[in-house]
Predict the structure.
Amino acid sequence: MSFLAGGNIAPSRIVKQDATTGLVDQASANTDQPIGVAEAGTHLPNLTIGGTNFDDGYAGIAVASPPAIGQPTATDVEVFTVGDECMVEIGAAVSNGDPLMSDTNGRAITCTSTNWSVGRALMNGTALGQLIRCKVQPMYYHT
């Protein structure tokens, strides 16, 4: 699904939706209620012209307010939601089948009880920054 970004969102990070504006932001706490995982790519092409690279490394960004005439207030970001399989960046080692929640940077870590899960790991992951396959199934996790 396509959403407008409420802030800078890195690729393959867990996202949450603002209840007031409907914009999506990168999750920033294990208590955030995630709605899915941001797209793996960036919103700008990896294009260099005259020594300037236009790719800022983000899947979606909020644009300065007020925006320039004709400029949107935010960029679209594609979000993998309920039932989708996608790649998510991990913040620590996880095991196949683990429920996943967000760390402070929107990376997936093993979910602990009384937190919100974005889904389940579909493979083992061993290192910070590694991409793993995930089944998106947001839910309240408890043991």
Q: What stands out?
A: The chain has no helices and twelve strands. The CA atoms of residues 94 and 138 lie 17 Å apart. The chain has a mean pLDDT of 90.
